[in-house]
Write a structure and sequence with these properties.
Blueprint lengths: L2 E5 L24 H4 L8 E5 L5 H12 L5 E6 L8 H9 L4 E4 L18 H10 L2 E4 L6 H10 L4 E4 L13 H13 L3 E4 L12 H15 L4 E3 L12 H11 L5 H15 L3
Helix pairs in contact: 3-4, 5-6, 6-7
Length: about 270
């Protein structure tokens, strides 16, 4: 089973993508018909929210239901700080295709927001319902993930885009030290995705290799899962180039290791 464990779709007329400004080359509609020709041997995907609204979650579930079996899971959004968050989480958990939720922590100025008291009931409900917590974070959040995992030991945490290390700026060591603690002290898994958009515009596989090598050493294939981050990946070379780079980056792994990262881990974590 080959899985793209992280991609988006969006329709501009929905009007809730605050980050998707007109100056970006990806400021246009993207749907599954745009994605399918790029997939190759990938037969299942996880569709991830790109706007912090309940309307986005409803839209993604509609897209998933109409995907003819391509989208096996949706990671949506709900306001985890709302007083009725546990009720909303329980409601969403009844949706067959809803496998996780993702607050957009990278956009929240308060690095410790996810540890606020009002957020904990919603997280507890997520853990009770078996939903995945997708952590859209930056390196500054990694110590927070340690605390979050201690508070909610049964919450399944997936770190999106390897916590967005500053590859272009050479920010390896501090990121690697904190990722080592997360790998060692929690059960979190990590997405091998989003790295090329953190690298320089003229990135090469050699630029990515030290980061991927660390991830393989720290998490191992059973705790790593591959995603395209399409269509955001179009800002840094596109889907095909990232897949080719992945083949090279994972070239020294056993067949079993590659199978885990390219599908098996995602199928297990998201219960596809």
């Amino acid at each position: 089973m080959r899985v793209d464990a992280h991609h988006h779709v969006w329709r501009l007329d929905r009007g809730d993508y605050g980050w998707l400004t007109a100056d970006l080359p990806i400021h246009r509609d993207y749907g599954l018909d745009d994605l399918r020709p790029l997939l190759g041997d990938i037969t299942a995907t996880v569709l991830v929210q790109a706007a912090p609204t309940e309307a986005e979650t409803r839209y993604l579930l509609e897209v998933a239901r109409g995907s003819a079996g391509l989208v096996h899971g949706v990671v949506g959004w709900t306001d985890l700080a709302a007083p009725d968050a546990p009720v909303q989480v329980a409601r969403l958990a009844r949706e067959r295709l809803l496998q996780g939720l993702r607050p957009m922590l990278q956009d929240v100025p308060d690095t410790n927001w996810i540890l606020r008291a009002e957020v904990q009931p919603g997280l507890m409900e997520m853990a009770a319902r078996g939903l995945v917590f997708d952590a859209l974070i930056q390196p500054r959040h990694l110590p927070v993930m340690l605390e979050l995992a201690r508070w909610h030991p049964t919450l399944r945490i997936v770190i999106d885009h390897a916590a967005k290390p500053d590859i272009a700026g050479g920010g390896l060591q501090m990121w690697a030290d904190n990722m080592a603690r997360v790998a060692r002290e929690t059960t979190a898994v990590c997405k091998l995705s989003g790295l090329v958009t953190e690298a320089a515009t003229d990135w090469s596989v050699a630029d990515l290799q030290p980061y991927v090598t660390r991830l393989l050493d720290l998490f191992g294939p059973q705790r790593l899962l591959w995603g395209s981050d399409w269509p955001v990946v179009d800002l840094a070379g596109g889907y095909g180039r990232w897949r080719e780079a992945t083949t090279e980056l994972l070239g020294q792994l056993s067949d079993a290791g590659r199978e885990a990262i390219l599908g098996g881990t995602a199928a297990c974590v998201y219960r596809l």
